[in-house]
Amino acid sequence: MSANEDQEMELEALRSIYEGDESFRELSPVSFQYRIGENGDPKAFLIEISWTETYPQTPPIISMNAFFNNTISSAVKQSILAKLQEAVEVNLGTAMTYTLFEYAKDNKDQFMENHQPVNSTIPISGIISVETPNTAPSSKKKEKKEQLSKAQKRKLADKTDHKGELPRGWNWVDVVKLSKTGSKEDE
Known about the structure:
Mean pLDDT: 75
Oligomer: single chain
Low-confidence stretches: 120-139
């Protein structure tokens, strides 16, 4: 079988195995990401595997440069990549993307035993604002403010004082009218 046929078969297998798995993400037909660990787990990390043209005869490109791995020290990243490279050497010539993801999942605790979270230079609020557009591209519509005509603005300005506040009691119920109509019904 040629490298392209092997890749097509492995691609179909990965799609069927990881269908519905939120941790798996297909970036392109030859590039995949897998989150090892649950969301919110401080020891969770993201592995990206990209196939070369001659994969699986040649090793894939394994990366941990994703933004998700920002808090992991470079020493821990290098250690994880070295252990994954050892697994690549053992599996060279066979479809290994699934094997590498599973190997990382099975050895997550061992990989992250020396992990000490690195303080990111970007504050948490910055991270949230950066990631929000990527996670919800369908919610690009911004809420529009209600547009008022000149007459509506004038009417609103007449109701408010110089500070833009409505006068005290503007929404009070006319107690006298209610008490008169209520007393007639009671009699």
